[in-house]
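Lab meeting prep.
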Amino acid sequence: MARRWQTMSEERLLDLRLRDLDLRIEGSAMEERTVRLDEELAAKGLRFRPHYWVGAEWFTPDGVPGIAIPFFLLHPRLTELERRQMLEVEGQAPGECMRILRHEAGHAIDNAYRLHRRKRWRELFGSFTDPYPDFYKPRPNSRRFVQHLKGWYAQAHPAEDFAETFAVWLTPGYPWRKRYADWPALEKLEYVDELMREIADEVPPVRSRRFVEPLGELRGTFRDYYQQKHDQYSVEWPGYYDRDLRRIFHEAKPGSTRMPAAVFLRSQRMDLCQTVGEVAAVPVYTIDQLLKNMIERCRALHLRLHESPRRTREAILLMLMMHTLHVAHAGYPRIAV
């Protein structure tokens, strides 16, 4: 199977097992980024370095001082497949990738030194052993948490709060004292600063180089993998949304030459998804599912444009933003990072 998958059609590739990929971090763009993370840790005077392996997702298992790198960042063919299936690629952009790596390094160093067992850690962040929620409801205006990854992810769990705080502290040249002045979150950052100075030269008590769920052990196919992701990010369309569509569009009259609403929405689909995703910090696939449902309802209701395309786009953008934020308010899915 060596490298034959590079030239496969998408349909054939989807039936390939993940374990059949011959991927290495070495020689890929991700090697440079892991080296950069190691350099950032060294610049802070830390002895600790995580180990890395190829997995299905960004992942730092409990008790393991290492980081799984998702397969879709290791080859352009797989990056393309991820984008076609999920409409975005988490960590493809260098800046976003480094933010995720710093976050994962927070989990890894916590595991390496068992930092969450410390009394002060528990006082500031909470109990590491609290169950992870399937969904969490963030408070966007809270100043008790740093803001690093999208979706106010520090609020998902005490372990994520620590990892996000560590990531902000680790970011080269970031003026965290100034940025978080007068925020309760500053106390957490100052604790991380003090704690890292304390353990900087210590040999980590946990030095396992174990790989958890490496790609070579995953028997499922790409089709299985993406079906699971689609199910995770999909949302349903409540019937009461139809009245919003009827306010923006009008039902078609016999002989009407106005553009069908479904056609208009399809033409704006990716632009709307990306715009709302950037503002709402919700996965683009989730927004696309909302918009897909809107298109299907417009077709079923025989709706057509009433206002100009510009004004219609503005109204749809506002509606889509409102309903996306409603989904977010109902609870963000906790993504494993």
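Slide two material, second protein:
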Amino acid sequence: MVNRSDLRVAWLVPEVELGAYWQPVLREFTKVFKNTVFYTGRVWSGFDPMLPGASAIQLVGETKFVETTKIETGYDRGFIAVSPSIIGHLLKFRPQIVFPQAFSLWTVLVVLLKPLCGWKIAIIYDGSSPNTDFRDSGFRTFVRRILAKFADAFVSNSQAGKRYLVEALNVPEAAVFTRTYLVPDAETLLKPLSVNKLENLGLKQPIFLYVGRITARKGIKTLLEACAILKKQGYSDYTLLIVGKGDQQEELESFIKEQDFPEQVNWVGWVDYGSLGTYFEQADIFVFPTFEDVWGMVVPEAMVFGKPILCSNGAASCELVVEGENGYIFDPSNAQELSEKMRIFIDNPDLIESMGESSRQLISQKTPETAAKAYVEVTSFLMGKR
């Protein structure tokens, strides 16, 4: 049996451009398994190499997404081009445990090298969505099934991810550890509040908040259509705060003018991750109308701030919403349904505080510490298999 202090663990996550949430997990994981390296092709904007956990992160070559099919309201299809130089890094480091993310080329290389290097493999799968699962592609499904046979375990961030692994790839349920590991670091999000409070903009309450890219996939058009329905019903005492940027904003601004409710919408623009806490704090209800999201980190982030959640069933993170307790789930293609959910909070403002507190309590059980503990559990399981 290898001692924990001697065990070498390699994580292979090709891209973490928007993954500031990984660093706190690594901070906790490396307290147990100190000899850990997190290989990636690109880090996120604002990455701080001085923070705890950063020393485990190592850049390998360059990562690039190559698009093959454009999808209007879903993820564009394609593949991630990664650096093959990871082979040299792994042969030099000689890990006993490898955590490759999903089914990229790096996962293929790890599987091919397994007979030579003798390491144990636990594939991590963030979540499930139609255009990342490729259930309609016989070739991709076949290749993934082959790769899955060589894995010793799987870590799924969501129940949807587990269902995909079991139903589509024929992975035994006993081999899947379903643990929520894509979680926000409350301390990081809350820090800006002490120095960066928003001025009172005189916004009408309740304030509905959206945070994310302004693209068709995110379903903002449905959200604005819901606002147009509210306008026709005589509802105007609320504000929609939109944080983000993207190629659909001009189209959406034209729609708002046509439907004549510009006073209800406040465009903030892009905000650095470290400053998002200020906007979460100012809002009353968080809305996530996405058509397709493998997870949707903004949902647990909003829950950290004690916000009720209106989440579409297109986001895997809707699993965090307990219907009627901390929010509601809706169909992202049904603006009428969303308007009815929004109206609940406008008509019953007392629900905001009680549901928000439920959100805070629910997410308090899912932290970087619990995420790291899950990976420690899986690592210990693989050590036993050795």
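Talking points for slide two:
The first helix runs from residue 22 to 32.
The domain at 187-363 is CATH 3.40.50.2000 (Rossmann fold).
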